Fold each of these.
Amino acid sequence: MLLLTIFGFWLHRPNVAVSTPDLMERLLTQLTKIHQIGEKASNDLRACIKQTILPKNEMLITEGRVCRHLYFMEAGSLRGFYYQDGKEITHWFGFENDFVTSFYSFITGQPSVENIQLMDGAILWAISKESLTEMMDKHHELERLVRLAYERYYIRLEERYVNAHFKTAAERYEQLVEHAPHIIERVPLGYIASYLGVSQETLSRVRSRF
Amino acid sequence: MLLLTIFGFWLHRPNVAVSTPDLMERLLTQLTKIHQIGEKASNDLRACIKQTILPKNEMLITEGRVCRHLYFMEAGSLRGFYYQDGKEITHWFGFENDFVTSFYSFITGQPSVENIQLMDGAILWAISKESLTEMMDKHHELERLVRLAYERYYIRLEERYVNAHFKTAAERYEQLVEHAPHIIERVPLGYIASYLGVSQETLSRVRSRF
DNA sequence: TCTGATTTTTGACTATTGTCAAAAGTTTAG
DNA sequence: CTAAACTTTTGACAATAGTCAAAAATCAGA
């Protein structure tokens, strides 16, 4: 079953060679943009990061289960959602070059309260919490890298919080069109509406009057 | 309460840094709850943390200016707000034992987009960004402490984001009553309404029907 | 303690958004 | 290429929240 789905995934990306180690370079390049790390740390990292390939619609993380890995997205798109009164609420999206996990679960070790589902086939690089902790123990510079990454993600979330909470649906949609057109292009309207906190009908009307 | 009484006395001597080193113990105790640190690191920290005392209504941070310090709140309460169409939008509160700063400005070095104002007189402990960076360079364990603190604050913000965005005003108010009654008790209704993203009148009505 | 200032509540009305249902448009798989 | 499945748009109406104005309650300083 896994083989078939991997194959299905390849069909849509015939020029992506899946198991060549040089692909991890993209992750390492991305890390370098956050903080420069030495040969030794980067080699140690390579040894404990594993590639994961998942097909469209697959669940990466499921509510109620503990999430023990942090993922880097090489390619693909996904969404985080949870259930409220039986309805799915999509609260964030992930794309290429994003680090993703069910953060609450990953950090606390408690069962995840959210689901993460692929919206496209994806190439991910995974590191376990144990390995990451070990890496940070061993290399101060990796602890720093993670600290700096947290700062970036915190600022992003803070901005998201303010926009979500204190702007109208129309403003939020325009913001999205300007700052994150890739979301508009690649994500079904229903998910975007949920993400913006309005009904799909309202979003459709907002959009129709530009 | 003892602290408040003592503090009422200080209110008449704002900006006078009282040299009471034993009070810093509260900060160090709080740090210990996040991550245990050694004598050397904790002594180095002591040397670069300064007490700041501010009276009610004073601005700790003003929009447009770069925020170069991180503060620990020994006592008092404050709010972060910004202007939207000439109106103040209060988006967070700080209380005893909280770490506060204009995070975006502190991290990026860009001018602050928010204001932070005391709602009560406060005792704060300040560390400059330069000192903090130096401390983290010197002590891996302090870098870890900060990394762990970020994790906590990220999770808090994530929860705040989901509540703010996907729950009704009534639900958010009840949540506040349950999870943060100190906010209800110590903060004027107008600020709470702004924080919850509803008009003061609506909040008053929500509250009147329990 | 009293008075003026501030904060909170209430009322009437308006604007915005949600819901349900159906039509139109788009994708996907055989 | 076509039919079925899914996504997006439109319409009618209901529910929710916002605005403005004024009254009531509370607080703070003289």
Amino acid sequence: MTTRAPRRLPSKDIKASIRQRIADGGWQPGMKLPSERELVQQFGCARMTVHHALRELEDEGLIERRQGSGSYVARLHPISNVLRVRDIHEEIAERGHLHVTRVLSVAREKAGAEVAAAMRLRKGSTVFHVRLVHLENGVAIQLEDRHVNPALAPGFMARDFTQVTPSHVLFEHAPLTEAEQVVEAVLADAEQARALEVPAGSALLRVSRRTVSQGAVASVARLYHPGTRYRLIGHFSV
Amino acid sequence: MTTRAPRRLPSKDIKASIRQRIADGGWQPGMKLPSERELVQQFGCARMTVHHALRELEDEGLIERRQGSGSYVARLHPISNVLRVRDIHEEIAERGHLHVTRVLSVAREKAGAEVAAAMRLRKGSTVFHVRLVHLENGVAIQLEDRHVNPALAPGFMARDFTQVTPSHVLFEHAPLTEAEQVVEAVLADAEQARALEVPAGSALLRVSRRTVSQGAVASVARLYHPGTRYRLIGHFSV
DNA sequence: CAGTGGTCTAGACCACCGA
DNA sequence: CGGTGGTCTAGACCACTGG
């Protein structure tokens, strides 16, 4: 019998092996990797296993694959870094902190031009409007200014937003199918400053989020965070 | 012969089918999906195919899977939205616009306490320091304030940053293995305001990025963007 | 314990690319 | 055209979960 490679080389090991050759510079950016069938020889496993490993490395942005051509070490952009914007309640709870919600206003309103456009409704349509402040251990970290489409969440106004976040309520009503988010820096106006307990003219991180459910806009939210108390954090690693 | 299902149901169709039942509310959040082996019966295909389809749906955040238990419609968080922070040159080029870089300063410096800590170097170590402004069609959209570890990019200072971005140069030298990013809102000080051609006290979006290569910090950058001229945009769809 | 998802094998055919 | 990745089959054993 010839000597055999270690009895098992699961796709984890294949990934680790390739990852290392990239990380230590052995395989330079742009360089072509061995073909799947060659790697099958090297690792002594089925092609599906190699394929699976390469597919995951592609998902992670480490390599690029082109059908009919081959697999290549990614040229730039292993720094395709990712920032997740999370639900405020989960985020606070995960830090083991106390989440308290302060309700500023809850109202039925006629949509103005701007709100109507964002929600794809006619101007003057009835919309729900809530304004809340979320506190983490007593410190204001988010001002939530949200408009909701009554058609998609009829029972919305009856809920107690000191107990459950609007996001949760919306999700119960309508499974969402689409979302857009925009992150910007803005200056706090007097009212926002008062709500968040920061000086007027402070820098705020504004996350504008629009959610779509079954083709209709379910909700449009503007989430304001004090620049000094809130950060979006992303981490990436090979 | 009994009637047969349509001759081929690739994993795309399995995904589409499940996706729709979730989107139209037929399968509610938290509900248990049929097991892989049951779906094999329903779709008349191999288990690998079903498995692959479910795996992708999990990647997209639509379902959750627990070994030994089953697959479930995700409870919240199809809105685990994702923001990518991209290379400024690519971003501008992709919009078909002109990218011009203005070099404010290029210098060897002794690291102060703060920079030294961020780069895991001793205070007083020599570091490279560049300050650039990136213009899109003549409008300033990013002030790049970057420190670089000389050990990982010895030829850095010789480069012409009006022709190639520091990110590119760094990537040539050392394949990066790790990165952190933090996004905050800050107020423009006088110098930043001048560089970006905005009023002092304007809101800026600050992206702080630290990249690690082979265990050492390669570079620390602070990227300032006028709040009114720059946005991070994310889109998600079922 | 039976049932679940996780992984792997050893084939196969296809669509695509480049010379 | 030959070589590439993309996908699929029909099995198999494993690790984990829950009652």
